[in-house]
Amino acid sequence: MSADTFAELLAERQVVIVCGTGGVGKTTTAAATALAAAEAGRRAVVVTIDPAKRLADALGIAELGNTPTVIDGPWPGTLAALMLDTKSTFDEVVRRNATDNDQAEQILSNRFYRNVSGTLSGTQDYMAVEKLAELYDSGDWDLVVVDTPPTRDALAFLEAPQMLSRLLDNPIYKLVIAGNRGVFGVANKAAQTVMRQLARVVGAYVVDEAIAFFQSFDGMEKGFKERAQATLALMGDERTAFVLVASPRGDTLDEAHYFLDRIREADLDADAVIVNRMLPATGLSLQQSNALHSSLAADTDAAGAAQALLDLVTAAAADDDRVAELSKAAPLAVLTAVPLLADDVHNLDGLRVIADLLTR
Ligand SMILES: Nc1ncnc2c1ncn2[C@@H]1O[C@H](COP(=O)(O)OP(=O)(O)O)[C@@H](O)[C@H]1O
Ligand SMILES: [Mg+2]
User: Fold this and answer.
1) 338, 345, 360, best to mutate for ligand 1 pocket (most atoms within 8 Å of CB)
2) pLDDT tens track for 216-234
3) Which of 82, 83, 165, 322 lies at 20 to 30 Å from 308 by C-alpha?
4) What is the residue extent of each domain of the chain?
5) Atom of ligand 1 nearest to the CA of 23
6) Of 129, 165, 175, 167, the residue nearest 148 (C-alpha)
7) pTM, two decimal places
8) What is the architecture of the domain spanning 6-100+111-161+225-282+321-359?
């Protein structure tokens, strides 16, 4: 079932995942999407990732990061925003999944954990997904909008739910745990050899901490796996919409085609494609602006202006052609064009302009 308009998508879905390469306007679009939903009367929350400082200030999340801040305004629904804090989200995940307080504390105070929890590759994607699941499960929101970390790989996000359960499925982890559990046996010997070699490279202390870290997860694997499965199901079915943000120019357009391919490889479809920063429509055709340019050739002042107009119309026509290509690559998606605004979008008024353009 595909929606006909972006407004329809916002009315029907419970989760919107905004993807695209860095710099295309992902964070702006995610925030404007939540605002549009609030304007349509829904309780909407947006998870932003590193918003520009002025936007974070406007959303009231510059200081309070990791829990939703409600933003007051003249909309019938609710608008809330938060800024993802990878480290605190990881801590919350550990606390929620630990069998008791001692286990949680043991992990949280582990030096290996403290080093990896903010830096392990894929952690930011994983924590964005965890935050999404937490907000969805709370029942407090009709729509959860998620801005995704800037990455070239759309699948990083789609695979994120399995990150921890994969880590715990890792042969090295199994070896370490098996090696430390059993006093006898092959696994133990193999594990010791691996550990000795590893210790030579990274230092015995790090290895001990890593072993302690993995051991302290004992008993939590099942919970992580179940959570991953539930979240994958949520992201894969009709409750969730994937929105791709692209720019009509240059490399980012190639990236958009690449994203669409990757999303399709994961057996998903983009539900909407938003082409951001379109050049403004002049209402003139290429032919008309060419004619204007020729007729004004004699007048130096006017010819300069006519040339500028011709350049703009030519560039806009090229944008249109590239957008048509993109639309062909995502035939089921709602295509929405958002023009380049005169100013960047750093406050609620700016977001309302984008929200109106998205749902008009
Ligand atoms: N349609 C637009 N017109 C003008 N400025 C825009 C538009 N969309 C986004 N911007 C500005 O571009 C910059 C990058 O946008 P942002 O949403 O942070 O991108 P991303 O999250 O993809 O890196 C911001 O300063 C934002 O205000
Ligand atoms: Mg961003």
Assistant:
1) 345
2) 877 887 888 888 889 989 9
3) 322
4) 6-100+111-161+225-282+321-359
5) 23
6) 129
7) 0.88
8) 3-Layer(aba) Sandwich (3.40)
